[in-house]
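Following up on my earlier thread - several people asked me to post the actual chain instead of describing it. Fair enough. Here it is, all 384 residues.
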Amino acid sequence: MTYSVAPRWMFLAYALVLLISFSGCKKKADELVVTPDIPKDKPFLPRLDIATTGNAPINSTDTYVTATISIDGLGIFDNYKGSAQIRGRGNSTWSFPKKPYKFKLDENKGLLGMAAEKDWVLLANYLDGTHMLNAVAMKTGQLLNLPFTNHIEPVEVYLNGQYQGLYMLTEQIEVKKNRVNVGNEGVLVQLEQYYDEPWKFRSAAYRLPVMVMHPELTNAEELVPIKAQFEQMETLVARSDFPNNNVLDFIDAESVADYFLANMLTDNRELNHPKSTFMHKTKTGKWSMGPIWDFDWAYAFEKTQRHFSTFDQPMLWSPASDGTRFFSQLMAVPAVKTAMKQKWADFKTQKLPELQAYVDDYALKIEDARARDYQKWETREFRF
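Reply from S.P.:
Thanks for posting it. Predicted structure:
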């Protein structure tokens, strides 16, 4: 079997590449779409201050530090000040000089216009010279109507009074009313090569690294029904009569199509491993793909260590990899292929102009902050 994507899909990623590339070119202000309610006499971006108790360092992804979080919303968003617990986050990203963080507020609170919950994430984007890649990916997911897609707001972060650079504030992926709303008896799993959560299993047919993010389990017996539900679906994908069996009774074709399109448009190849790949279901519902997450290594970066460097490789390119074998099968489902074709036709005619406006707007908002971040870290200066 050949594990590849038909060549006609290869051009999809170019759409976002062109949008982001053009946003990096110098334009006159009147050529850009500008958020109308940003005061012209103030900075574009909110400021987020982290003040740890006793100026304690944040040097672990496991141990929380007590802190006060303060946000100046510039009159555009509500200001905020409150107690929190904060720690480092990420796998490879935690090893970089500019650190990403997760913080937990003492109360459910909406920040920068996002829905109220306690847990929040600050993405550092150390690899991303544009400081736009995750934001554009999330906007793409929203325009594709992918359920539970995160929102992104750029902020400039200070830690104990010291400038840390340009970050993205976003929601923590978790099962909550205002996050992944599948109910207390629903399931959220992450397919992740790092395989570093306490409750996890390797699936029977494809050896997928499945980590259970919800519900919170207390013993191995509670893992059994979740594993059985996942493998019921997976076994149908692996059977010789696939795709002419009842696999679509157990996985939602529309969500698979939307998820593939979001990853194609951003040239994200994490599905091959797989990494950062979430799936969810309600208690009695089908498995659905999402939410989308983590586009640091998208836009062709994974193969070349340089964003936008090549588009001559299909999204599913590694036939020996567990994720490639599983997701190549799903891409062969006729209902998925039909949905992808229709969704792309609708997207390019109805949604692409809105995405282009978002890219231009976001690029203008962060322009000065991106320069300050580069002065601080001297990271990858992006060349278009």
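Residues 72 and 96 are 27 Å apart (CA to CA). That should answer part of your original question.
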